[in-house]
Write a structure and sequence with these properties.
This protein has 2 helices and 5 strands. It has 115 residues and is α+β, with helices and mostly antiparallel strands. It has one domain: 2-Layer Sandwich (TATA-Binding Protein), CATH 3.30.310. The protein has a 5-stranded mixed sheet with strand order 1-2-3-4-5, with helices on one face. A hairpin with a 2-residue loop joins β3 and β4.
């Protein structure tokens, strides 16, 4: 458990910066905007595409991360290489990142936190 809120505040900043980086990348085709959505409690971070490509509606979740129990839970990560390496490179310990998109019984084999 974190001894103060400082690591959590740092992780919030790191998550938001990573999301902003991906949101700023131009979408290849069509008129699509990527949004960063942060919950009011500053514990949920989402990256979402919205717009039109070749007369087809584009709307979907790219990344969803949550701060829960002094850990970063990655619920969904649609980034090609994922954001976990970026989190670790920014100083978040692997034992504080839960790859929640893996079933609980498989998380012990990921090298990251189980829960």
């Amino acid at each position: 458990m974190a001894t103060s809120n400082q690591p959590l505040e740092q992780w919030r900043d790191i998550l938001e910066k990573i999301m902003q980086y991906y949101a700023a990348l131009p979408y290849r085709y069509g008129d699509v905007i990527t949004y960063v959505i942060v919950s009011r409690d500053y514990n949920h971070f989402m990256l979402v595409h919205e717009g039109w490509e070749n007369n087809r509606r584009v709307h979907g979740l790219i990344v969803h991360a949550e701060l829960r129990n002094d850990k970063i839970w990655i619920h969904y990560d649609g980034i090609e290489d994922g954001i976990t390496d970026e989190l670790v490179a920014a100083g978040v310990p692997k034992d504080r990142i839960v790859l929640a998109f893996h079933p609980p019984q498989l998380r012990q084999h990921t090298g990251y936190a189980i829960a």
